[in-house]
Amino acid sequence: MWEVLKGLQPERLWELFSQITSIPHGSKNEAVLAAHLRQLAESAGFAVKQDDAGNVCISLPATPGYKKTPTVVLQGHLDMVCEKNESVDFDFTKDAIQLVRDGDWLKADGTTLGADNGIGVAAALAVMMSEDTIHGPIEILLTVDEETGLTGAMGLSPSLVSGRILLNLDSEKTSTVCIGCAGGGGVTTHLPLSWTDTPNKMVGLALNLTGLRGGHSGLNIHENRGNAVKLMSRNLHALKELNITLADFQSGDKRNAIPRESSATFALPVNYVPKAQKIISEKLTAFRAEFLNERDMRISSTTINPPHKVLSRESFDTMLNMLMAFPHGVLAMSRDIPGLVETSNNLASAHIKGDALIAHNGPRSSFPHAVHETVDQIVAVANLAGATNHIGKSYPGWHPNPDSKILHLFEDAHEELFGSRPEREVVHAGLECGIIGEKFDGMDMISFGPDIVNAHSPDEAVSISSVEIFWKLLVCVLDRIARGAYQ
């Protein structure tokens, strides 16, 4: 796919990004990419370390004459979120991302692009391969499995890095600098289900909801995007008056993505099919009026042979009530920072598997106690339904430090290059800075990156021109540190 990127600047960064997109690297499947990048670094003569979690650290010596300056850690994550449109034939374990240029935007053909965080990783490696970038000692820290719970950062060996200035390259707006983020957790719920034979004189109906935007469960949660689990549950609730019996429910995939698609199969009396189709059409009209930004939402129904088994009435009612009751969306806004989501929950998935419904919720908050209270709420709802819960390990947020030395240096560099100071931002996403800052006392951190939109969905895109801006900022910051501006 190098032909799509040929001629873009900085050329070395785009060449490295092309290599990254050609190697499958979904969460927990980063080993081949890690080995490739390790070989690239070692072939260029750089020392590489790797810890038991799979995290990689590449050590770069300082540009001659600048070795007495402080060590900088350039940090990004190797994994990407693997999401695709239902109509796309693509295997994330084998296939290379198919790149598409659309004006100033680079996208993928029906899948996530992996600009989150492939561009940041490529930028760090481009520094490694650059012959004219001035910098002091650098450690390039490439973590694994960020997207499914930041487990790489959680397992990061303290011996892997020595630097105490961290440039996290995993943000998504060039005009801002991130100085803080939310923490979060996860709850996986198992609801036992009982089955019965499908009653006589029934017909099957397959219901599919597609075309939702989905997106990042932290960065996009305030935009009131449709949640496929919730909307399908509401659809089924409206159909209950027709004495439907449920045979299947499948929705959602990644824990940090708002679910985009959903399918359900149920049986109902033959004479109720026209009424069911009318209710489905009415719900679609209502959903489109409620979610004006979901212009491509579709709900289709197809008559099929009746399933052999359906849920008992009690199991169907309990499951539907639980999904309807689970919280989703913004739960609280910050009292201190205008426009910042303080606490939220993403009902990320719900799947019937065998004799159980398995659902996952992902709460986030700027305050640890609010994460725990949201977990308690989710568990309470599940307990009322007779379900069991597995509570995942929570991860810490990153508390802003407005007096950070690297923050002031970055703002000065931005003003030097572009004539303005960047906007400071605290995000409602989970960045590895919170975990790394907790592991390494005294770590001075900021996060910045190019313009990326619709991360964690097949509409993910990165602005080509913003990548050049991002690169210039990175080079300027490293140059300033090397020349003694970090005081």
Describe the structure.
The model has no long low-confidence stretch (mean pLDDT 96). Strand 17 (329-333) and strand 18 (341-353) form a beta hairpin. With 487 residues, the protein is of the alpha+beta class. It is built from 12 helices and 24 strands. It has 2 domains: 2-182 and 397-482, Zn peptidases (Aminopeptidase, 3-Layer(aba) Sandwich), CATH 3.40.630.10; 187-391, Alpha-Beta Plaits (2-Layer Sandwich). The strands form 5 sheets. Strands 9, 10, 12, 13, 14, 15, 17, 18, 19 and 20 form a 10-stranded antiparallel β-sheet that branches. It has a 6-stranded mixed β-sheet with strand order 1-2-6-3-7-22, with helices on one face. A 4-stranded antiparallel β-sheet has the order 4-5-24-23.
Content of β-strand:
25-35%
Structural category is alpha+beta
Extended strand count: 24
Shape: elongated
- Say which CATH homologous superfamily of the largest domain is assigned: Zn peptidases
Report the span from N to C terminus.
Answer: 43 Å
Low-confidence stretches: none
Largest sheet: 10 strands, antiparallel
Key terms for this structure?
487 residues; Alpha-Beta Plaits; ten-stranded antiparallel sheet; six-stranded mixed sheet; elongated
Provide a concise account of the structure shown.
With 487 residues, the chain is α+β, with helices and mostly antiparallel strands. It is 30% helix and 27% strand. It has two domains: 2-182 and 397-482, Zn peptidases (Aminopeptidase); 187-391, Alpha-Beta Plaits, CATH 3.30.70.360.
